[in-house]
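User: My collaborator sent over this chain with a note saying "see what the structure looks like." That's all I know about it. Can you take a look?
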Amino acid sequence: MQTTEQIKEMVRQKYSEIALQDKTDNAASCCGSGCCSIETANIMTDDYTQLEGYYPDADLGLGCGLPTQFAKIRKGDVVIDLGSGAGNDAFIARSETGETGKVIGIDFTPAMIEKARQNAEKLGFHNVEFRQGDIENMPVSANTADVIVSNCVLNLVPNKDGVIKDIFRVLKPGAHFSISDIVLEGTLPPAIQQAAEMYAGCVSGAIQKQVYLELIEKNGFTNITIQKEKAIVIPDDILSGYLSAEEIAAFRKGNTGIYSITVYAEKPKDAGACCAPGCCS
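Assistant: Without extra context I'll predict from the sequence alone. Here is the result:
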């Protein structure tokens, strides 16, 4: 079994490669697997092109939702984007918060940070910055953010509890997050899991939907709401490399599946300046 550091290093290397690839090579999945299907170009990404602030050079086709669309960002807000990549969601958020606000993107891949900074310079944005760091230990002071967004990133992190705790720490009392992520329902057959990992590597780190929501609640968040949910359908031409036609049909009829969800939750207004329940000494 791989250690946490080994998993993180694998993800870092993979995303370093993705930062240098063309979007068409990444759009086959939320994690840029490069695997192809004749049935569909991508199964996870949503269309950003109609959103204000969209910048094509920052869109690597790596997301599984549109969290900024649901994030209730107001003018002047401080917004943090977890796993900011080349800056796609950060620039969308900047269009919402305006020149009086601030957007901080956090990513642990140096190549992504460099690409995002280059994009921000091209756009002339002086209130968008990108910091290198782990999202379970953000290089941000406590009680800083009005809104936190993230797009298909937490599933890649082994220590999801640590991320949720640090989100709680960094949000101001009464502030909120809107996060798009991949979750599972039911137990995927090993062959399906293998196919899913090949087509969309981010599935391998996904956890059960109910466990995901309970983790958020356990860490002190309230008003937890699923803002959007969609099934992730792996094309038959991918599954056929692992399953027979009968096995594919049985899977399609079953109750197990892979889902993209966008989750909203709030840090209570009366939360102290410390952190989530159980993490303060």
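A starting point for your reply to your collaborator: The chain is about 35% helix and 20% strand.
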